[in-house]
Write a structure and sequence with these properties.
It is built from 21 helices and 15 strands. By secondary structure, the protein is of the alpha+beta class.
């Protein structure tokens, strides 16, 4: 039978390739199904809403290139703008876009592995470890984090694949594609800078020759266009970033270095690599933190040490692979150490979104450890005379991989359930949405929302004047109104009650209080209030629909009044001890029996 006949019949290498590709596609679809189950019942959280608020103001260069919380992320800004164009907050669209980028990352992982090792059954092991690890889940569930993390994962896999093809062929198109991918990665997340040394290490380890010094000479001579272009791109971006993006903190990272190493490298990472953490802390829902059992952490370290020793005794050249992984883990640690850790403390090490792309490095390194590398004779290979004669039976190895994958799935489910059941921001804002759905335009006082909805450090975005327009079109914030509402502690819109810091003295006219007509009437308060933003409530009985002039400190407003007994609310920022009313048309009167100055608090239902 000829080779052509074999190919046509689907037997042999072509048929095997298609079967592997089909199995990989099924694994990717299974991952997407699990992520879809996790994502669609979830909702936005913290920074997500602020990014949507800013994106809703329109797409321009300022929006794209303005850093967000010390993050330069034009690509994320663009995706946020796409979601904002769908009207009010659209979690369905955000979740769908997240799944689309996740699909791109998963397919890119398959492409990377097949580029390095060919389309063979064994690549399904590192592919599955990436697809079902819980390490990547927190950076997928938190939408703002996914705008950084998922494009970086796409960039990681694509950069390694195109770079490997360039190293093998030295064709310019693969170098150009590598630089393009790296550039796009930098537009998503500054951490893409970590990819430059990673690619350099791959070149030195697998396409250099001889001693370390000679490897540098060989790579620099053979791949000089890539060296020059890569250094130029990394230097240009670094210069722009350092000069244009404000740093999150100037505090010294030294005090937190040890505790962060313990939480991130000593606890979260080892259990995550082996399918953990199996248990999540819910001290800051819905963003769960790794909370593994102590025995599980110890057992994970034992298993990792045994794996390193076993592979070292059975395969040659494993040291360079562990060096690649160690570099990437260390880079992730150092980046967190000098940015977020001095602000939030060592607890940041238990947050897997700072380790998400380490899962990419794990997939790369597992492939390099276990499989021959195409295009080079410097990959790992079985030792002709292994130090350890005993070999782990394949069925035990398969069972171990299956347990790791099962642990990853169970850990994913446990994490997602926190988002499904305990997102205080979702409960609060959905309650506001529902309460205003059929209410028509409602005048609101600007108040601060509870800390578990939006924490105070995000001021002014923790105020209702910034939050409500993101989720509803029925809220407005006037300076003067006849009816006033505030959000309750549960997000339910409620009538505003003024908690008085000062009140008017009793009026002189019996049965009326303070009689207001054309001439100004000065109504003294029982105490002078300091300079602050106050709501002034005036309770009145008017003879006709008209307007009244209100003078409060340096503020002068024309306020509408209605015939009969009603209220008037005026918002001012000033210090004052008198409220002046007047300017009614001749023949019209207004009796004022109450003037309260204070802050708006929740009262009864609307």
């Amino acid at each position: 039978m000829s080779d052509r006949t074999v190919q046509r019949s689907g037997i042999g290498p072509v048929g095997a390739r298609e079967l592997v590709l089909g199995a990989a596609a099924l694994l990717i679809l299974a991952q997407l199904a699990l992520r879809a189950w996790a994502l669609y019942p979830s909702w936005f959280y913290l920074d997500d809403l602020q990014m949507l608020d800013e994106a809703g103001k329109g797409l321009d260069a300022r929006l794209l290139f303005e850093p967000y919380d010390s993050q330069f992320m034009p690509l994320g800004r663009l995706l946020a703008w796409v979601v904002s164009t769908n009207g009010l907050v659209s979690w369905g669209l955000a979740a769908t876009l997240t799944l689309a980028v996740q699909l791109a990352a998963s397919v890119a992982c398959l492409w990377m592995l097949s580029t390095l090792h060919g389309m063979r059954w064994e690549i399904l092991v590192p592919l599955s470890l990436y697809l079902f690890t819980a390490i990547t889940v927190p950076a997928t569930m938190w939408w703002a984090a996914s705008l950084n993390a998922l494009p970086l994962q796409v960039a990681f896999f694509c950069a390694v694949a195109t770079w490997w093809r360039y190293l093998r062929t030295r064709r310019w198109r693969w170098l150009a594609l590598t630089l393009l991918v790296l550039g796009l990665g930098l537009l998503a997340y500054v951490k893409a800078l970590v990819l430059f040394p990673l690619l350099a290490l791959l070149a030195l380890a697998y396409f250099g020759e001889g001693s370390l010094r000679n490897r540098f000479r060989v790579v620099a001579r053979r791949y000089w266009p890539a060296v020059g272009a890569g250094v130029a791109l990394a230097a240009a971006f670094s210069a722009y970033y350092l000069s244009q993006v404000p740093q999150l903190t100037t505090d010294s990272p030294a005090p937190v270095a040890g505790p962060l190493a313990d939480t991130m490298l000593g606890t979260a990472l080892p259990v995550g690599l082996l399918g953990g953490p199996w248990r999540w802390s819910e001290i800051n829902p819905p963003a769960g933190l790794a909370d593994p059992y102590g025995w599980a952490t110890g057992l994970s370290w034992v298993a990792i040490a045994a794996l390193v020793a076993y592979l070292g005794m059975h395969r040659r050249r494993t040291g360079r692979v562990w060096l690649l992984l160690a570099y990437y883990v260390l880079a992730s640690y150092l980046l967190l150490l000098v940015t977020r850790a001095p602000v939030v403390g060592s607890v940041a090490g238990l947050e897997y979104r700072y380790l998400a792309d380490v899962a990419c490095a794990v997939a790369l390194c597992v492939g390099l450890l276990l499989l021959p590398a195409l295009g080079t004779d410097q990959g790992t290979e079985p030792r002709p005379d292994p130090v350890l004669r005993w070999r782990l039976p394949q069925r035990y190895a398969a069972a171990g991989v299956a347990l790791v994958l099962l642990g990853g799935v169970l850990s994913t489910v446990g994490y997602a359930r926190i988002w499904h059941t305990d997102n205080p921001g979702e409960r609060f804002l959905r309650s506001a949405q529902e309460g205003l759905r059929d209410a028509g335009p409602v005048a609101f006082a600007d108040t601060v929302v509870p800390d578990n909805v939006i924490p105070g450090y995000l001021y002014p975005f923790n105020t209702s004047v910034r939050l409500l327009p993101v989720v509803t079109e029925n809220a407005y914030f006037p300076r003067v109104t006849g009816q006033l509402a505030v959000l309750g502690e549960d997000g339910e819109p409620r009538r505003a009650v003024i908690s008085p810091a000062a009140s008017a003295q009793p009026g002189p006219k019996e049965g009326c209080g303070w009689l207001v007509q054309t001439d100004p009437v000065l109504i003294p308060l029982d105490t002078r209030v300091f300079d602050y933003t106050w709501w002034v409530r005036v309770g009145y009985l008017a003879s006709a629909d008209t307007t009244v002039e209100v003078r409060i400190g340096s503020n002068v407003v024309e306020a509408p009044v209605r015939r009969g007994a009603h209220e008037l609310f005026v918002n001012v920022t000033d210090d004052f001890g008198v409220v002046t009313l007047g300017g009614l048309p001749a023949g019209q009167t207004m009796c004022v029996d109450t003037v309260d100055v204070g802050t708006a608090t929740p009262g009864g239902p609307l």
